[in-house]
Design brief:
This protein has 198 residues and is an alpha+beta fold. It contains 3 helices and 7 strands; from the N terminus they run αβββββββαα. The protein has a 4-stranded antiparallel beta sheet with strand order 1-2-7-6, with no helix packed on it. The protein has a 3-stranded antiparallel beta sheet with strand order 3-4-5, with no helix packed on it. The protein is elongated.
Length: 198
């Protein structure tokens, strides 16, 4: 008897996990987004702060963000390495929703350039609650955006996936069959009637 959850149970479990993840992320003192190549973080801070009031340290493996003289807002080890020389931070003034208000708010905007541009991060720092990276829907990209080697690898993977879906041989299966045919042609004296490909 199968013990795997039904599609409805799986959907419910996924929805619960997504809600828990959203709640955990909402509690963080910052917001963050990522693409496959970089991470962007915004940290709200009081509107009276200037750049010199901040303590921001970006290294290959660590991130520290805070206001001088106060406990850091973010302080921890990054899940993967970044290029610190390509990573930046700025202090930005946010336009207040009610234009009559004299108090403005600010945010620290950080841009981290990932060293490995082929993987998603589960969190900004390893001490933060992780997200389920298997549920990330990447932005659409065009095959023409990829370099030649990556493009041919992706095209081969797409071809093989289509072939499997249609129940047809993959490019690897076709290559094996072609090698067997060549071997059979060069050795007509051998009996291949019971040969199995596997």
């Amino acid at each position: 008897m199968s013990t795997s959850p039904s599609p409805e149970e799986r959907e419910k479990k996924d929805a619960e996990a997504k809600a828990k993840e959203a709640e955990e992320q909402a509690k963080l003192p910052y917001k963050w987004t990522q693409t496959i190549g970089d991470v962007d973080i915004t940290v709200p801070v009081p509107g009276n702060l200037k750049g010199r009031d901040l303590d921001v340290v970006i290294t290959k493996t660590k991130l520290k963000v805070g206001v001088k003289g106060q406990p850091p807002i973010i302080d921890g080890t990054l899940p993967k390495e970044i290029h610190p020389d390509e990573s930046t931070w700025t202090l930005e003034t946010l336009s207040s929703p009610s234009s009559g208000s004299s108090t403005s708010s600010k945010e620290i905007a950080l841009h981290l350039d990932k060293s490995n541009k082929m993987e998603w991060w589960p969190h900004v720092v390893t001490s933060a609650p992780p997200i389920d990276t298997s549920k990330i829907q990447p932005e659409n990209s065009k095959l023409s955006d990829l370099d030649g080697e990556t493009r041919s690898m992706v095209e081969k993977m797409m071809y093989d996936q289509r072939q499997k879906e249609l129940g047809k041989p993959t490019s690897e299966d076709e290559k094996k069959a072609q090698m067997l045919r060549k071997f059979q042609e060069s050795h007509p004296e051998m009996d291949f009637s019971n040969a199995k490909m596997g």
